[in-house]
Design brief:
The chain is α/β, with parallel strands linked by helices. The chain has one domain: Aldolase class I (TIM Barrel). Strands 1-2-3-4-5-6-7-8 form an 8-stranded parallel β-barrel, surrounded by 7 helices. About 2% of the residues have low confidence.
Length: 249
């Protein structure tokens, strides 16, 4: 390790690699390798540069979370899942609102493809409710449930359909742990540092310390590191918060 924080704490930190081009993305990987456990590739970067960035990150011995939130007819999502396995990603997600059959077929395709390739398959997560949405947003869309009710409903559906875990707001962790147990993986996005006061489009989030202490398995951090004057120092501080959160459990 390059720093003094525990490896367990670093492993729980996923960096949102929201870069505009291949070179910028690789520079972040080179800077943060050894300080974070996984690099998240979302729609922005994947659309800009394609699968080559995944290959490059894997060649550097780093883990990849492919965050494309697959949501389509079951057959299409199953084929996308197979493609994700072939790329060697360590984690990817689908939208739970795509339905139980879609999730089941994605999980089955993942396992089948991984077995065929003789490799460990990636973790399959289901996205519940985006952290940028609140109750008013759900009402506008047409949902009858509030955020907590809908998150729990979709998380239960995901578990019943074979997903390994969910992507959910840190504010939903207590409820999810109570209803789904300790082994169901919870990844919480939009996490901020405890010292950060800047507001953005994330409406339902917590600090890194609070999320981990409450029971998150992984946290996703982007802008608090990416826009910091000293990104590496910001990363170290978040890892320290994770370490404190683990100690406080």
């Amino acid at each position: 390790m390059k720093n003094t924080s525990s490896k367990d704490a670093c492993d729980k930190l996923i960096f949102a690699l929201d870069a505009n081009n291949y070179e910028e993305a690789l520079s972040w990987v080179e800077l943060l390798s050894g300080y974070v456990g996984m690099f998240k590739i979302g729609k922005e970067l994947f659309t800009a540069v394609g699968p080559e960035i995944i290959k490059s990150i894997k060649e550097k011995g780093q883990k990849v979370f492919l965050d494309l939130k697959f949501h389509d007819i079951p057959n299409t999502v199953a084929r996308a899942a197979q493609a994700a396995v072939s790329l060697g990603v360590d984690m990817f997600n689908v939208h739970a609102s795509g339905g139980g059959q879609m999730i089941k077929e994605a999980v089955f395709a993942t396992r089948t493809c991984a077995d065929k390739l003789g490799m460990a398959g990636p973790v399959v997560l289901a996205v519940t409710v985006l952290t940028s949405l609140n109750n008013d947003d759900l009402t506008e869309i047409g949902f009858q449930k509030d955020t907590s009710e809908l998150v729990l409903h979709l998380a239960k559906l995901a578990k019943q359909s074979g997903a390994s875990g969910v992507v959910a707001s840190a504010q939903d962790i207590v409820m999810l742990r109570k209803n789904l147990g300790d082994k169901f993986i919870i990844v919480t996005p939009g996490i901020r540092s405890a010292t950060e006061t800047k507001k953005d489009d994330q409406k339902r989030t917590l600090s890194a310390y609070e999320a981990i202490k409450t029971g998150a398995d992984y946290i996703v951090v982007g802008r608090p590191i990416r826009t910091a004057v000293d990104p590496l120092d910001a990363c170290r501080k978040i890892v320290q918060e994770i370490d404190a959160g683990l100690t406080g459990r």
